[in-house]
Amino acid sequence: MAEKLYIDALREGLREEMQRDQSVFLLGEDIGIYGGAFGVTRGLIDEFGEERVVDTPISEQAITGIAVGAAVAGMRPVVEIMFFDFLTLSMDQLINQGAKIRYMFGGKAKVPMVIRAPMGCGTGAAAQHSQSFPGVFAHFPGLKVVIPSTPHDVKGLIKAAIRDDNPVVFAEHKLLYRVKGEVPEEDYVLPLGKADIKRKGRDITIVAGSIMVIRALEAAKELEKEGIDVEVIDPRTLKPLDMRTIIDSVKKTGRVLIVEDDPLSFGWGAEVAAGIAGSEAFDYLDAPVKRLGGLDIPIPYNPNLERHAVPQVENIVEAVRELLR
Amino acid sequence: MDLTTDKKLWMYRKMYEIRCFELEVDRLFKANMIWGTCHLSVGEEATAVGAIAALEADDMITSTHRGHGHCIAKGGKLPQMFAELLGRETGYCRGRGGSMHIADIDTGNLGANGIVGGGIPIATGAALASKMKKDGRVTLCFFGDGANNEGVFHESLNIASLWKLPVVYICENNLYGMSVAFSRSTAVKNVADRAAAYDMPGEIVDGNDVEAVYHVVKKAVERARRGEGPSLIEAKTYRWLGHSKSDANVYRTKEEIEEWKEKCPIKRYRLKLVQEKIATDEELDRIEKEVEKEIRDAIEYAKNSPEPSVDDIANGVYA
After folding, report:
1. ipTM score here?
2. Nearest to B21 by CA among B136, B104, B126, B99
3. What is the tally of structural domains in chain B?
4. A102–B114: do the CB atoms touch at under 8 Å?
């Protein structure tokens, strides 16, 4: 297996699906010669041409709606929205159209589209270019939501998202683009709705998604020095959510910390906590379920404030210690 | 571009079908047999029929909240339409969509839409799919005058023109966005004037003249099919009934409504067909009788159709 950057693995996934299926095409702002604001689509225009790597005007609602229409008419569009924050501009077409069309039409239409966007803070981009809120989309029936954390996962999951016959929101944390990891050479697709045990452990379960998986694994390394054996579960997709794997892990460890990059209030971690509380894992809990998430504030600009707006490794370490006290 | 006698009679039949359908819906609604709300297109039949008559069978349309007429003209079947409005399992959407969401992908009807302007980018995207697949299909995008002030209208027309997409935008300007008069909502005199901003042809047509609508749309459809890009057509028309069920028509005068009823597109076309000796009154009466029977049969079919099962309530959210 070769070591690859997350961004390169993602691009490889896009490229392979475009090679495999002529109906797959990319649509978004500055994704052509510029290669996308973060470089995800760099070089794809050379291989597939401007017909399949389509630069659009700055018109997020139309771009999203055009993807919906193209999908209903038999294509498989993959939209890039330049920043996750800008998905608010896509909302009507994504929620009222894309997500609802199949059900509204009695199950007689399908909308196979992916809408990808870079999210998260840590780059000094301030409030309108830094928020993570994939959990919001998990609230809407008809959508699937993917939050890949590693190069291996991002490639397998983008391929699954493209092959899926439903609208999929694909949330890429910006700080993950430069993370390296092993990526198999062979063709592989990961299922949507299957969590992954990123680290096996006995003493406590950390459920973390996206960038928080990386931080949870670092925290686990720290805690190992203190003799604490952490299990890290990455749900990988928020919708469908694989509660089974989480419940089984909590039954084993008896303690759980849920860590997300979304603002804590009403975040997806609450859904996970409720799922645990309502399951047989409840009887195995030796401590209350604990959650970490972003503060309930817009992301601030100042680097020190920004760092404190979302959970860091030390917060996770401290929370685990508290749970085991 | 000349209309055959068959096509002319088809247009008359479809307009009459829409009129009867809408009036029956109104009646069923008042009899509490239809739930929710519905938006009727009585008075606007010529626009739906004339425009869709200009399409080939596998061309596509997107429709609006006032979409029964578009669906009928595109080949929608009356029994399945009534069944949908009655919320039955045999309806187009298995009783899940109702009046505002009737779609029939198989006949190229990509759906009515409850969001004003919501269908505009979808039509644009369907046209992009046609361009990419080189399938030669054109998409006709219906919207009302209210939608021409939605941002997505402008975003979509700009893109369609830029990419020369095979789409024809047709605004059914019935002069009111719910209660607000067109002149009080829109800074330009005509919706079609906005075509200039997107470097596409903008045409105004009498929306109550079915043949005039046909010819204008036909020209735009052929242009789109040749790969020369989109057009914006504005059909000036009028809705006789209220915006929806709760409308007491306080924002317009009885005189104005009566004046427009004088311009009834069906009465007007009947006169023309008889005058031009395309059909006799007897032939047209026969068509009307046939339609009336179809409507009665369709309502019977709907009434006798099963309700959807609650066991299936979550069915069809995901593919």
Report:
1. 0.96
2. B99
3. 1
4. no
